[in-house]
Amino acid sequence: MSGLHIPIGTPDGSRTEHAENLLAPNPSAMTLDGTNTWVVGAGEEVVVVDPGPDDESHLRRLRDHLGARRVTEVLLTHGHIDHSGGAKRFAELVGAPVRALDPRHRLGSEGLADGDVVTAGDVEIHVYGTPGHSFDSLCFWLPADLAMLTGDTVLGRGTTVIADDGDLGDYLRSLDRLRAAAESLGALALLPGHGPVLNDPIAALDGYLAHRRQRLDQIRAARARGARTPREIVEIVYADVDVSLWPAAEMSVRAQLDYLDGR
Length: 263
Description:
Helices cover 33% and strands 19% of the residues. With 263 residues, it is of the alpha/beta class.
């Protein structure tokens, strides 16, 4: 649409017409460049998505960046600490409630669920339930920008881990749902929770689905070779991955074994 602008490169400062990213200073092998905190809205009212970790300098920088704009609500894509850890403190700084699917992360009376519509000024934010990476994962569709905020369901680089509170079957269904939505809604961008903006949503989601199918085939093959434990499978399937990431790979393998064994 006219006015949509998504620069390529570092995620910090990337934006669409109504969504702007401020990068949290928590880079790591798991968080990539850091957590993307998104400011969504038009005019004097905005919504902040994923304030990030409990890092006072980041939270104050975020508050100061907003200037005179008022934060009406804080939304969480899910409750993992790199996205939600700073939510309570940021809510105190700006005087706004926190809405999340998981009641443990809410501040205020309202939750957040599939089908909800939140407004920030004249901008609508449509909530999509996308469990899988975690049980409480949500994505947020911005019709005004033809863009989807994907949290950790789709990353700007690499692929997502199925966490201990996630489920691969749910995740595959969520990817299918996002793929169908991206096509039917004419999505122009995915705005992830980590890494750069993805300007070809269909290709990104097709790539994610193909990767999951490939990993499942590799695990079947590793089991046929005699691997039984998650660690034994990781040593075969993830042999080219830095060993510092093997614990996360084991989480994903356990989720894939549960899926293959129908648990």
